[in-house]
């Protein structure tokens, strides 16, 4: 399998946006391990769940929507991938990604 180039994601200034996307990838079951390895090697991607039948739940984080689209295109083009579908995309100011979230317990 030829090496795939990752899309470099550079740190962003605190006034820029940060994008997070949820993508459903469906791969040929026989190619599942090869697809998992390729996705894991891509910058900004993470596999959260996978089935033996070839379905993978992947998130992508990137500084721009164009980078999300580029990563989605790369996922589509991986050998063994049948489809890669954008399920969800969200963006926030990059500064918000560094805000500490307190542990709020509703237990009495």
Automatic annotation (TrEMBL):
Any one annotated GO CC term: cytoplasm
Gene: napD
Reported function: Chaperone for NapA, the catalytic subunit of the periplasmic nitrate reductase. It binds directly and specifically to the twin-arginine signal peptide of NapA, preventing premature interaction with the Tat translocase and premature export.
Record-linked Pfam families: NapD
Compartments, as annotated in UniProt: Cytoplasm
Main localization, broad class: cytoplasm
Keyword terms of this UniProt record: Chaperone, Cytoplasm
InterPro entries: Chaperone_NapD_NO3_reduct
GO molecular function, one term: signal sequence binding
Name used for this protein in its record: Chaperone NapD
One BP term from GO: negative regulation of protein transport
Organism, as annotated: Cupriavidus agavae
Assembly, per entry: Interacts with the cytoplasmic NapA precursor.
Superkingdom, taxonomy of origin: Bacteria
Family designation: Belongs to the NapD family.
């Amino acid at each position: 399998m030829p090496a795939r180039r990752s899309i470099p994601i550079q740190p962003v200034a605190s006034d820029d946006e940060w994008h997070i996307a949820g993508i459903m990838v469906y791969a040929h079951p026989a190619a599942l391990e090869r697809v998992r390895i390729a996705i894991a090697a891509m910058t900004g991607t993470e596999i959260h769940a996978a089935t033996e039948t070839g379905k993978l739940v992947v998130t992508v984080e990137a500084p721009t929507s164009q980078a999300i689209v580029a990563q989605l295109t790369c996922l589509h083009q991986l050998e063994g991938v049948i489809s890669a579908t954008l399920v969800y995309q969200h963006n926030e100011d990059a500064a918000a990604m560094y805000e500490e979230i307190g542990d709020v317990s509703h237990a009495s």
